[in-house]
Amino acid sequence: MGHGREELLNVYDASGEVIGARPRREAKSSGLAVGAINVLAVNSKGRVLLQKRLKDKENGGLWDKSVGGHVSAGEEFDTTAVREAGEELFDDPRSPRVRLAPTEAEFREIVVREGLTQSLWLFRAGTQRNLRDVRRVPGGAIRNVIYHLAIYLGRTDISEDTFTPQRTEIEDLRYFSPDLIDRMLAGGELAPNMSFLWLTHARALLGLPGVRAHVV
Question: Residue 132 sits in a domain of what CATH number?
Answer without folding.
Answer: 3.90.79.10
